[in-house]
# Entry
Amino acid sequence: MELRNSTTSTAQRGETVPTHNPASPVRETTDVAALLERGRTLATPVLRAAVGRLASPMDTVAAYHFGWIDAEGRPAAGDGGKAVRPALALLSAEAAGAGPEVGVPGAVAVELVHNFSLLHDDLMDGDEQRRHRDTVWKVHGPAQAILVGDALFALANEVLLELGTVEAGRAARRLTTASRKLIDGQAQDISYEHRERVTVEECLEMEGNKTGALLACAVSIGAVLGGADDRTADTLEEYGYHLGLAFQAVDDLLGIWGDPDATGKQTWSDLRQRKKSLPVVAALAAGGPSSRRLADLLAADAKSSDLDCFSEEEFATRAGLIEQAGGREWTSQEARRQHTVALGALDRIDIPDRVRAQLTALADFVVVRKR
# Structure
């Protein structure tokens, strides 16, 4: 693997850009914010109805997690996330020639699985903040975080299977497979925290499972519900899988260098959790003085029972070494490469030009986002 250092590039500042011409008609005419808002508008009522089926107090705990109420149970307009997955599910239905509403059950099912994973991940990782407020386990306790996560996972398949169609069964199978891969990825992520070295290939496999699989499902599930054949659905999955890897690469950059006011997490959050994320793994694989010094520090960190006692300067030193070794630049380049591969998949299927432009614009958004 070739890693290069740069002191002036856009990527070095933590910003990534798509590889195609940013002045293209797609970027000028597609309103990504409107696509995301459409996903929220169509999916949220169905999502709320599904959560409303849960027994008390799980219904209110879930409502808190989604940002619909505050910790005291009062209505709130919290940050419910970017809603990329619902937007993709609705576009997926349109790619198959169906209306966006056909993709709503798929959008809701994917959101339920995604939030199941967030509830459990926050607990396992010890994250105390998500979306600018305390996580569920911090407010309602670990038991409720586990139970509500399990309940959301069960609801996801219920929402699909109650449609009672052949297409719903096909969609449920894809969701189940994606869920299993997501869980595989989380297991890999946890195991890597306790290893001194993880290869770039292992890290990409983990992130493909943990993030790529569910985005791949999101962008195919609506098409399946709309009657698309397996070839079309599989190719849309390929787009979503590589988009997921681009998404996670950007997340890895933000996990070290992101602004806490934007991310809702602590500074150096991934370093505090000993995450073997792409910038770290790429830096360790690079060789050279900065890489070796980083390896020595991380090996010493692994023997420490608590990194909370570390100063901000100590985390800044580790982040600086990652950057000097080229891990930040390599990860930015990888985000762009995965973006290109994702868009290449769209060229192999016959979908409406408008939908192709919107899927391209969403891919651009994932790679250039700052949070």
In short: The chain has 17 helices and two strands. The longest strand covers residues 129-130. Confidence is low (pLDDT under 50) at residues 1-28. The chain has one domain: 21-368.
